[in-house]
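Revision sheet: structure tokens.
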Amino acid sequence: MSNAKKWRFGSVLAGLMAVFLLIACQGMGQTNLSQTPATPTSPGNELNASPAELPPLPYPYNALEPHIDAQTMELHHDKHHASYVSNLNKALENNSNLQNQSVEALIRNLNQVPENIRTAVRNNGGGHVNHSMFWEIMSPNGGGEPTGAIAQAINDTFGSFETFKEQFNQAGTSQFGSGWVWLVRNAQGQLEITSTPNQDSPLMDGQYPIMGNDVWEHAYYLNYQNQRGEYLKSWWNVVNWEEVNRRFERASQAS
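Predicted:
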């Protein structure tokens, strides 16, 4: 074969190889694209609203026994929380501009939500935000006294962990009807114990929820019946202080 023919053959071969590699790379790109989860529209650690999704429970239903029983956990997560998520998505289904915001942003700015769906977003968006936090700040390996920065902050603000627990439990016991008891970082940058009715979130008042306990009857009634105070006392055995510390750090960043 002459040198000219060899050169033409090599050029054709190189061209075919280039086409093959291009097709292969495009195929790989398509595969990777389909396997890569969509980038959430919500900032930081906030919850996506396009659509809102029920987060998985981070432990088995029975993991918090005997303090919270398996049946309560299953009903609480799979029925109550799931209902808040479903109803929030229904409220937002014709409001794409709201879906592009985080659920927390909607709760912080309820006055900007159309009046015809404002109550639904308040109740169900609040329920979604509150419960998504609730599962995370409990753990089968929780309990005991707080550690890290939150421990020092509690001592500085309330004098001692025992005093803090007493005041927190009292606020939870005193909350009339359904609601939540909270430890928040308020607008002045201070720790404060508060309570809210129904599924209202401290975010509505410019506060950052560091930890909170659900005092709706569905959170405890199967095990404690009408003894809310006993539930509040027992709940400290499952508090995940590592996660509470993470939320305390984010509270400082959010201010």
